[in-house]
Amino acid sequence: MSQADVELRVRKVIAESLCVDLEEVKREAKLIGDLGAESIDFLDIMFRLEKEFNIKIPQREIERQGRGDMKPEEFEVDGNLQPKGIARLKELIPEIDPSAWRDGMALRELPALFNVGVFVGIVQRKLDGSLFAGGGDSGSGGSTKAS
Question: Which of 61, 102, 138, 145 has its CA 20 to 30 A from that of 122?
Fold first, then answer.
């Protein structure tokens, strides 16, 4: 499946989930700031993407992979991301504008940075088997179950 096909299907899923016009769901549109998503919508979108593409996306895998083997205080302190944590998340989620990251930002602010491209990238990498290839992803593109 081409990246253009994946992107269109992801955009359609997001548009349906958020009840917005497909034309509004541009790759750079932020789900919360531009499309009016709330935190519960992220779960619905992930569920719909799993169903649409017949894949399994582990719910907390981005944070687990971001933490990796670094000490907890290297990733975040009192809910605030540390420089090493931010650097690792930038690698894991390259679709987020690098200028959006800032030292000491709260971990709870991360969803506000998620744009449509983040979901396109997650799905594309899951389909080609490279999502979290460094560990934590138990499958290579098919439907996998994580515990």
Answer: 102
